[in-house]
Write a structure and sequence with these properties.
Elements lengths: L6 E3 H8 L3 H6 L5 H11 L3 H8 L1 H6 L16 H6 L1 E5 L4 E5 L1 H16 L1
Antiparallel strand pairs: 1-2, 2-3
The structure holds zinc ion.
Amino acid sequence: MMAPHPAAPVALALRGIFKLSSFKRKLKRKASIKTAKYLKKNMNTIIQDAVNAKLSGLKKIPDKCDLCDLAFDKSSREQVFSWMLKVDEDRDVYNLFCPACYSKYYDQEEEVNNV
Ligand SMILES: [Zn+2]
């Protein structure tokens, strides 16, 4: 059975890439958006830390939405917290979704899982 690869806001997904596993545990699927909103209030420095610590991780992030090709601005704090990144570290696959596409994608995935 495949392990799930939850999507998380880019800033938080980066923490996952950097092996901070406590975040990963918190970012289980359904709770991810709520958790992100909570963390957003408390963790404004996440992306700065991430950028400073590991530029290599940032390079792996696609520069546009996987579904609609909308450009992603890695230097925009707002986008870093609102766009969703799905990380499959085993296969080194990074899927990036803009907020609009993610909500569509997420709804579909929920439906599939609920069948
Ligand atoms: Zn999109």
